[in-house]
Design a protein that fits this description.
Layout (H helix, E strand, L loop, with lengths): L6 H8 L3 H8 L9 H14 L5 H8 L4 E6 L6 H16 L3 E6 L7 H7 L3 E4 L5 H9 L4 E3 L14 H11 L5 E6 L5 H17 L6 E5 L3 H12 L7 E4 L2 H13 L9 E3 L16 E4 L1 H13 L22 E4 L5
Parallel strand pairs: 1-2, 1-3, 3-4, 5-6, 5-7, 7-8
Antiparallel strand pairs: 9-10
């Protein structure tokens, strides 16, 4: 078995001292090291496959090379998986490593952060104010939907607002919302409903008619019937995501009704099957990888030092919209 490559091996290959190797590979400032010497060290490290000791760097710096991403206590879902994917790629570019942890309902994040000593933190789940304050007190750089840079989108990322905007501009004055009845989606469902209620108020509409449904045609048809035969019928519905929009289309079919003539339906996340729905599904596309990249950039921008292995290759995409409307036939 080949022995582990050490900084001494790199120093011999580059013709420099171990101290110089340490200065170059760890990006330590205040040292007069020429560009040529720096280049020899980096080339030797790459050729030998040298990786600095994570444990040693943690002791020296007082932090690890890990970026901790806290996930909500719910099924991952396509959009959140893409956020994780984008964040992971960006963190790797910064010379760090991403680990993801699903935070239990009501779980405290600060003890976990103190035990792992991460270099940075990405919150993909909202926390109560005391928990958020405890995290901020650790001093770990953090990116979160609850911070100022995320306004005015908030935890819903603008999905509900865009759904309501489209329906309102299409002439719908009474709007419904289909949320999951199954447990495990509480925080996202609450965030979506709050965003939709706020958007209805902004457009001069009454509060939306909420139904919680399972992914079952019969269950969805019951909700559709209550909307259609209410004193003030619902004419357009915001579905929690595209899967729940599919359930609503199946529920309409069971009642011999269809979208959009009887009920306009708009989904969220633009899954590949959305264009194959009958009729093709109008939805909100979530640019989840972009969101993951943005949060990783925000969390790590203060950590990347000149001369280190990792570099951030793009400026934060703070001005790019994270969601866009995909207009098809269902709404």
């Amino acid at each position: 078995m080949a022995s582990r490559v050490t900084s001494a091996d790199v120093a011999r290959a580059a013709g420099v001292s171990r101290a110089t190797v340490s200065y170059v590979l760890n990006g330590r400032a205040g040292q007069s090291i020429s560009a040529a010497t720096r280049g020899r060290v980096l080339a030797a490290a790459q050729e030998l496959g040298y990786a600095p000791s994570t444990a040693a760097r943690t002791l020296r710096r007082g932090r690890s090379d890990l970026v901790l991403m806290l996930l909500p206590p719910e099924p991952l879902g396509r959009a959140l998986a893409m956020v994780l994917d984008g964040a992971s790629d960006q963190v790797e570019q910064a010379g760090l490593r991403l680990i993801a942890h699903r935070l239990p309902d009501g779980g405290a994040a600060a003890p976990l952060v103190r035990s792992l000593v991460p270099a940075a933190l990405i919150l993909a789940t909202p926390l109560q104010e005391p928990d958020l304050d405890a995290l901020q007190a650790t001093g770990v750089p953090m990116a979160s939907l609850q911070q100022d840079h995320a306004d005015p989108l908030g935890p819903d990322l603008g999905i509900g607002a865009l759904q309501v905007q489209h329906l309102a501009r299409s002439g719908h004055r009474r709007i419904g919302v289909a949320l999951p009845a199954a447990p495990g989606y509480q925080w996202r469902a609450e965030a979506r409903l709050a965003a939709i209620e706020e958007a209805c108020h902004r457009h001069g509409l009454q509060r939306p008619a909420v139904e919680r449904i399972n992914l079952d045609p019969a269950d969805a048809s019951g909700a559709v019937g209550r909307w259609l035969f209410a004193d003030t019928p619902v004419t357009g519905v915001c579905a929690f995501d595209d899967e729940y929009a599919f359930a609503l289309l199946a529920g309409l079919s069971m009642l011999n009704r269809s979208a959009p003539s009887d009920l306009a339906v708009i989904g969220a996340e633009d899954i590949p099957l959305a264009r194959l729905a009958v009729p093709p599904l109008t939805t909100v596309s979530v640019h989840a990888r972009r969101i993951g990249v943005l949060f990783a950039q925000l969390a790590t921008e203060s950590l990347v030092e000149p001369g280190s292995f990792g570099t951030v290759t793009a400026a934060p995409e703070q001005n790019l919209p994270p969601v866009t409307l995909v207009l098809r036939a269902s709404a």
